[in-house]
Design a protein that fits this description.
Strand content: 15-25%
Protein name: Amidohydrolase family protein
Number of strands: 18
Largest sheet: 8 strands, mixed
Helix content: 25-40%
Pfam family, one: Amidohydro_1
Radius of gyration: 20 Å
Number of helices: 13
CATH class of the largest domain: Alpha Beta
Keywords: Hydrolase
InterPro entries: Amidohydro-rel, Metal-dep_hydrolase_composite, Metal_Hydrolase, Metallo-dep_Hydrolase, OTAase-like
Organism: Nonomuraea longispora
Structural class: alpha/beta
Low-confidence stretches: none
CATH architecture of the largest domain: Alpha-Beta Barrel
């Protein structure tokens, strides 16, 4: 199947410049760009009449199985029920222009395979399986009065508990065995977990390094949930490649990001959404009280990181019915960043983090033919990407989605 787009303004995200040209897709890839391109018989041809064309977007922190903000309840749901919800959530993400997403715990090889085979409509899915947590950590959803734990090896819970370097090593190997693109560890407390503190550090340095060693042995990497500078800095010193959230980083954190060639994945929109709508979508009262601890600090952390030259990646971390706000992250980030820099975070920089530079997040020949046709210039108006209504066409793997 082939597709020819004529007379588009094609964005080179790296340089931030447009070129008026045609773009031809074949066999799921961008075959060529240029003027006056021809295509074989049977090719679908669209005249874009000067519309703006950008690479398909990448959201590097999603939870496609999170049909509710009550994350602890997901593990006890039937896998078939979770899958049905995930298919709906993923389809919505594709409609919003996200052609690749990195799941930060919950999704597995089954959903990724289903999407790749066309059984589920949605973005390409880079998954980590279950996130690794210490007892009482961010993926231990037991209340204080619960003793027994079920890590739901068959089912769709978001995490598994592993204590001690050997147990962490075994858990990481198990997720890698199942095809994980990266390993997720919980290196600090969080909003959705019932018994930990936001300002806690989680996992010893030996445990963090065990996860890193196993990921690197498999040519993969580790992403760490972490909020405070203390937690972030420990994770970076342990060799972790991407920090998720990082709302309370300091200047030392910035130095460590640069020294260790690491990435920061802020998720500003989820705190905005949880504050506005969390209670309606199942967020427990105890978790609601934690939101204020990280809400105000997020923009300041983003500004500090951007000013210091940290590589920033687009992420949203939305839950339940709040997934519909996925594009609003563009508007929030543009309060401190230029639109081109936010777009890079959702294309070229995200691709680099995922180890897929040149494959996604670009309109270069040879890349996956994932792109958006927009009715306005996203570099002139941050609201263009913040509002999916500006998307005229989503092209995924060379076909109109």
């Amino acid at each position: 199947m082939s597709l020819l787009l004529r007379n588009g303004l094609l964005l080179d995200v790296t340089t931030g410049t447009y070129a008026e040209a045609d773009l031809r897709c074949a066999d799921g890839r961008i075959a060529e760009t240029g003027h006056g391109l021809t295509a074989p018989d049977g090719t679908r041809v669209l005249d874009l009449a000067g519309a703006h064309v950008v690479p398909g977007l990448i959201d590097a922190h999603v939870h496609v199985t999170a049909s509710t903000a009550d994350l602890g309840s997901i593990g006890s749901m039937a896998p078939s029920y979770v899958t049905a919800h995930s298919a709906r959530i993923m389809s919505g993400m594709l409609d919003r222009g996200f052609t690749t997403v990195r799941d930060a715990s919950g999704a597995d090889f089954g959903l990724a395979d289903a999407q790749a085979e066309g059984l589920v409509r949605g973005p390409r899915l880079l998954f980590c399986g279950k996130g690794l947590s210490q007892t009482g950590g961010h993926a231990d959803f037991r209340g204080r009065g619960e003793h027994l734990r079920d890590d739901h090896p068959c089912c769709a819970g978001l995490g598994r508990v592993a204590d001690g370097a050997d147990a962490v090593r075994a858990a990481a190997r198990d997720e890698l065995r199942k095809g994980a693109h990266h390993i997720k560890v919980m290196a600090s407390g969080g909003v959705a977990s019932p018994t930990d503190r936001i300002d806690s550090t989680q996992y010893s340095m030996d445990e963090l390094r065990a996860a890193v060693e196993e990921a690197e042995a498999a040519n993969r990497y580790v992403a760490a949930h972490a909020y405070t500078a203390r937690a972030v800095n420990r994770a970076l010193e342990a060799g972790i490649r991407s920090i998720e959230h990082g709302n309370l980083i300091d200047d030392v954190s910035v130095e460590l990001f640069l020294r260790n060639d690491a990435f920061l994945v802020p998720t500003l929109v989820t705190y905005w959404a949880l504050k506005e709508e969390g209670r309606s979508f199942g967020l427990p009262e105890g978790s609601l009280r934690k939101v204020d601890e990280v809400l105000g600090a997020g923009l300041a952390a983003l500004e500090r990181a951007a000013r210091g030259g940290v590589r920033l990646v687009y992420g949203t971390d939305l839950l339940g019915g709040m997934h519909r706000h996925q594009n609003h992250e563009f508007r929030l980030r543009c309060e401190v960043q230029r639109p081109i820099d936010v777009l890079r975070s959702a294309t070229t920089v995200a691709a680099e983090l995922a180890g897929l530079a040149g494959e996604i997040g670009t309109l270069a020949a040879g890349a996956h033919a994932d792109l958006l046709v927009l009715d306005a210039d996203p570099l002139a108006d941050a609201g263009v990407l913040a509002d999916p209504g500006h998307i005229r066409h989503v092209v995924q793997a060379g076909a109109i989605a």
